[in-house]
């Protein structure tokens, strides 16, 4: 009756007002529903993310524990163990319970390291008193004899880490062949002789792991490092062949190629005239901390990775540049050689 007394315009106005009110109430309910749904969705997404983080963390923890378990009680031989990366490798492998055979030329330095490791109690696993074998890798005869002594320490070898080495600084024109031979004896022929002497026992057990601490310069060559780069290229090639041949015998091969490491490598490098270089290169001084690299070595060995580059972005890119754009790489190396040569000639 009320609507009958209204003017048509008034009637349409009231009707529109009711429709608008109903629409507003519906919109309010919809907004509350949307907000509730957003809240539920956000909570679900957050729970899912937290769950993923938890699963990933658990996976990493289990992988870490499994990695350490693989090396616990394993017999690990480390050459060049008295200083630098070798010393730090000895610490991290000892901490996971490996049975170490420390090798080097300095018996006194080896003894000090062995005492330091034996006195450490930071590890949560049972550790073992390290053994020591003294020899010079540059002496092939002594290296073969040392292999027999190494096998007598624990009866076998699970992991051989060929870490010992010497660097070189000089021009090819000023370097006699005898200097090249000295570098090759320590960096290539010595490790090869030791590896060949220990391989038969690994093959017989169908278990073993040969690890070569090479260098980025085993993949690319840098000016004024010719003898060193050549020895590391030879190491890379030997290990690639070794890996293929020993796969059927259950023996793994890993090549680790670090960039610059903050050690005394450049100080102890051989100069072109055969003398001690005695200079700490700026790139070496700014290199990675040996302890950090040692942890990467431990992880690579535990996972039995085949080939690992442990370098910063620039050297890593240079490796790809050498393959994908060799002409550009050669021009860059020639430019670097000219820049480094100027101060020496002036």
UniProtKB/TrEMBL annotation:
Residues 74-264 form the Ketoreductase domain. Belongs to the short-chain dehydrogenases/reductases (SDR) family. Putative oxidoreductase. The chain crosses the membrane at residues 40-62. It comes from the Eukaryota. One of its GO terms (cellular component) is membrane. GO terms for biological process: lipid metabolic process. This is Dehydrogenase/reductase SDR family member 7B. It comes from Myotis myotis. Keywords: Membrane, NAD, NADP, Oxidoreductase, Transmembrane, Transmembrane helix. PROSITE patterns: ADH_SHORT. SMART domains: PKS_KR (SM00822). GO terms for molecular function: oxidoreductase activity, acting on the CH-OH group of donors, NAD or NADP as acceptor. CDD domains: 11beta-HSD1_like_SDR_c. SUPFAM superfamilies: NAD(P)-binding Rossmann-fold domains. The keyword Transmembrane helix applies. InterPro entries: KR_dom, NAD(P)-bd_dom_sf, Sc_DH/Rdtase_CS, SDR_fam.
């Amino acid at each position: 009756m009320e609507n009958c007394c209204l003017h048509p315009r008034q009637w349409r106005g009231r009707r529109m007002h009711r429709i608008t009110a109903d629409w507003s109430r519906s919109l309010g309910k919809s907004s509350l529903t949307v907000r509730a749904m957003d809240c539920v969705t956000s909570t679900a997404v957050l729970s899912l993310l937290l769950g993923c983080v938890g699963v990933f963390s658990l996976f990493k923890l289990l992988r870490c524990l499994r990695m350490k378990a693989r090396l616990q009680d394993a017999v690990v031989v480390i050459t060049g163990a008295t200083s630098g990366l070798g010393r730090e490798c000895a610490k991290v492998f000892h901490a996971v319970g490996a049975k170490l055979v420390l090798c080097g030329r300095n018996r006194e330095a080896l003894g000090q390291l062995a005492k330091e490791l034996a006195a450490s109690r930071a590890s949560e696993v049972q550790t073992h008193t390290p053994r020591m074998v003294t020899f010079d890798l540059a002496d092939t005869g002594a290296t073969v004899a040392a292999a027999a002594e190494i096998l007598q320490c624990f009866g076998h070898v699970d992991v051989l880490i060929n870490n010992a080495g010497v660097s070189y600084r000089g021009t090819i024109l000023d370097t006699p062949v005898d200097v090249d031979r000295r570098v090759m004896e320590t960096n290539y022929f010595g490790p090869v002789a030791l590896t060949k002497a220990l391989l038969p026992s690994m093959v017989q057990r169908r278990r073993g792991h040969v690890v070569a601490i090479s260098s980025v310069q085993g993949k690319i060559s840098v000016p004024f490092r010719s003898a060193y780069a050549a020895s590391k290229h030879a190491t890379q090639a030997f290990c690639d062949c070794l890996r293929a041949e020993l796969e059927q015998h259950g023996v793994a091969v890993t090549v680790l190629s670090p960039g610059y490491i903050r050690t005394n490598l450049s100080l102890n490098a051989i100069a072109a005239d055969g003398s001690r270089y005695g200079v700490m290169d700026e790139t070496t001084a700014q290199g990675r901390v040996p302890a950090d690299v040692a942890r990467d070595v431990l992880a690579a060995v535990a996972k039995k990775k085949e080939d690992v580059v442990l370098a910063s972005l620039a050297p890593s890119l240079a490796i790809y540049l050498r393959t994908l754009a060799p002409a550009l790489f050669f021009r860059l190396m020639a430019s670097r050689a000219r820049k480094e040569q100027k101060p020496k000639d002036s």
